[in-house]
Amino acid sequence: MDDAPIENAKSDTSSFVFQRRKAAPGDLRRFLRRQMRLRLQRVLRNNYVQRPLFWIGTVLGIAWASPLTLVGLLLALPVALLRGHMQLVRGHTIALLVRGPIADWLLNRHPFGPMNAMALGHVVIAEYQGLSARVLIHELAHVRQAARWGPLFPFAYLASSAWAAIRGRNAYWHNRFEIAARKAEKHF
Ligand SMILES: [Zn+2]
């Protein structure tokens, strides 16, 4: 919608009136939608909104992924009790990081081959030696995936591996969730 000056035919040529050009209904809808989107973006950028939104999202994600986290906690318990330790880490989400000799033992026997770390819901079990910031970012990406998919995550993960294997690709490397987690590492 533009304000276009047009000449008023009745008066002399020096006087102009501003007449609103008639906009097509589609234009108006697009304009209003864009205005609404901009206003929403401005509100979402506001820190007072972003912080509570982060926490609401995190709490919902924790609740949704809780069945997986429970399995993670069952594995984490012996790791922590036998000369291991736990700490809370926070990136774009929060997770309980657990390390210890039992974790090293478990990770060397991972079904996909020896691993540096693995995420089960909001629990990350990691090796003492193999844990780096990059590995942690990778695992936190899996935590976010679990928060998004909830109890469906293991099935979606396995389906993606199966799909990769059917196409003659590597079930781990070409799994879409692994590809996304590797992409997250690049932001490190
Ligand atoms: Zn991974």
Overall domain count: 2
Low-confidence stretches: 1-15
Q: Compounds present?
A: zinc ion
Give the number of helices: 7
Going by helix content, strand content and strand pairing, the class is alpha+beta
What portion of residues is helical? 40-55%
How far is the first residue's CA from the last residue's CA? 44 Å
Largest sheet: 4 strands, mixed
Oligomer: single chain
Total strands: the figure is: 6
Radius of gyration: 27 Å
Using the alpha-carbon principal axes, give the shape.
globular
> How would you write the strand order of the largest sheet?
3-4-6-5
* Beta-strand fraction estimate: 15-25%
Q: Helix-strand pattern, N to C?
A: EEHHHEEHEEHHH
What is the average per-residue confidence, as pLDDT, rounded to a whole number? 86
SSE layout:
Layout: E1 3-7, E2 16-20, H1 25-45, H2 47-64, H3 66-81, E3 85-90, E4 94-99, H4 101-107, E5 117-120, E6 123-126, H5 133-149, H6 153-166, H7 176-185
Helix pairs in contact: 2-5, 5-7
The site of zinc ion has 4 residues, from helix 5 and helix 7.
Written overview of the protein:
This protein has 188 residues and is an alpha+beta fold. It folds into two domains: 23-64; 65-186, no CATH class. 55% of the residues lie in helices and 16% in strands. It contains seven helices and six strands; from the N terminus they run E-E-H-H-H-E-E-H-E-E-H-H-H. It has helices spanning 25-45, 47-64, 66-81, 101-107, 133-149, 153-166, 176-185, and strands at 3-7, 16-20, 85-90, 94-99, 117-120, 123-126. A four-stranded mixed β-sheet has the order 3-4-6-5, sandwiched between helices. The protein has a two-stranded antiparallel ribbon with strand order 1-2. A hairpin with a 2-residue loop joins strand 5 (117-120) and strand 6. Helix 2 crosses helix 5 (133-149) and helix 5 (133-149) packs across helix 7. The longest helix is centred in the first third of the chain and has 21 residues, at 25-45. The two termini are 44 Å apart. Mean pLDDT is 86; it is low at 1-15. The structure holds zinc ion. The site of zinc ion has 4 residues, from helix 5 and helix 7. Zinc ion binds next to helix 5 and helix 7.
